Amino acid sequence: MGLYLNILALVLAVLLGTYVIVFGFLKKINEWCYVSSLGEKKHSLPPGDMGWPIIGNMWSFLKVFRSNDPDTFIYNKVKRYGRTGMYKTYLFGSPSIIVSILETCRKVLADDEQFGLGYPLSTKQLTGKKSFHSIPNSEHKRLRRLTTAPINGHEALSMYIGYIEEIVVNSLDEWSSMKEPIELLNELRQFTFKVITHIFLGFTAESVMGSVEKRYADLNYGMKSAAVNIPGFAFYKALKVLF
Hints:
60% helix, metal-binding, 2 strands, two-stranded antiparallel ribbon
C-alpha cells in the first residue's frame, strides 16, 4: 500500500511539473516573438504579459467585458504589476500597450502626430476600406467634419431639442413605473440609439428601430471580437448582418 501511494504521488508530481513547464513555456512564446525582437528597446516597455500564443489575452479581456465589472481587466494589471498606468499585452491579434492614466490617455487621443489611428482587424473588415477606421488621419478629419455638421453647434442641435426632451421625459416615466431594478447603461444605450436613428435616418417606428438596434448590436459585438469567421463566433454573426 505504501509503495502504491509513493508511485501515485510521484506520478502526480511529474504531471504537475509537466503542466507547469508547458504552461510557462506557452505563456512565454509571445514574449519571445515580439518583445525579444525589439532588442535594446525592450527595456523601455512597461510591465505586463503577452498571454497565450495567437490569442494573447483576448479570453480574459472579453470575459470581463461581458461581466458586470469590466474594469477588472485593468484592476488585475494594477494588482499584479503596480499602479504604473501603462501595461503591455496582446489583444486583437496584435502586441499592444494599455494606457490607464488620465493625462497619458489625453495625450494619446489628442496627439495626431505621434499617435496614428489604429483599429482591430475585425473592425476594419466589417466597416470596409473607406470607413473611418481605415482611412488616413487627414481624410478622417475631413469626413468627421462632414458627418458631424448636422448636429454640431447650437443652431443644428436646436432642431432636435424637442424630440430629445420628449424621449427623456417618456424614458424617466417608464423607468419610474418599473417595479424591478433597471440596467441603466443598457437603458441609456437604447435612449441614445433612438436619438441617433431619428437624426440620421429620420424614422422613429419602434418595430423598425428594434430590428435595426438588434443588427447594430450584433455588428458592434463582432467589431470588438477576434476576426474568426466560424459559426458560433461574434465576428461570423456580424458578417451575416452585412451580407
